[in-house]
Amino acid sequence: MNPRGLLGHSGVRAALAGLVVATAFAAWTAGRALRIDPVPPIPPPTVALAGGVAGTATRKPADLQDAVDNDPFSPDRTPGQPYRLPGEPDPRSADPVVEPEKPVLLGTAVSADGRSFAVLQMGDGRAVSRYVGDTIGVYKVRTIDRARVVLASPTGKRVDVNAAKPEL
How far apart are CA 161 and CA 163, in angstroms? Predict the structure, then answer.
């Protein structure tokens, strides 16, 4: 069969056209892959001034002799005061801890732009709108979600307040 006769078939012509397009695309891709973008200039280095370094707080050196004297791994060691989280009451304290009154959450309006607010009420007082960072009573508003507000007590304790469900 004559090679010129093969070009007369539409399938062979389509395959050759596809080969030409694929070769052109491969050449273009290789050219883009081998091209190196210019590197932007870096800013000049900055030098810290002595005043800025001197103003930083220094850490108190560890008292190694105290650690050796109070061997924490000794089998006859009696531990001192246990660690407590911020806002956690002292278990050895005889005074009962009185929790401040929690506000009632009447509703929330959640916004994508960060201007969400909650409508809260303290006891028999009037309802007020509060944003994140505002205070109500002794509590500070930390986050506002749909039908839920997270508050922080003065001792740092996290308080979750959910919206009351209406009775039908």
Answer: 7
Number of Cβ atoms within 10 Å of the Cβ of 145:
13
Single-letter amino acid, residue 148: R
pLDDT tens for 128-168 read 999 999 999 899 999 999 999 999 988 888 999 998 776 55
Give me the residue spans of the domains in the chain. Answer: 10-34, 104-162
Cβ–Cβ < 8 Å for 147, 163: yes
If you ran DSSP here, which 8-state letter would residue 163 be given?
Answer: B
Do residues 109 and 117 lie in contact, with contact meaning Cβ atoms separated by under 8 Å? Answer: yes
pLDDT at 54 over 60: no
Which is it for strands 148-152 and 104-109: parallel, antiparallel or unpaired? unpaired
Compute φ and ψ for 161, nearest 5 degrees.
Answer: -125, 120
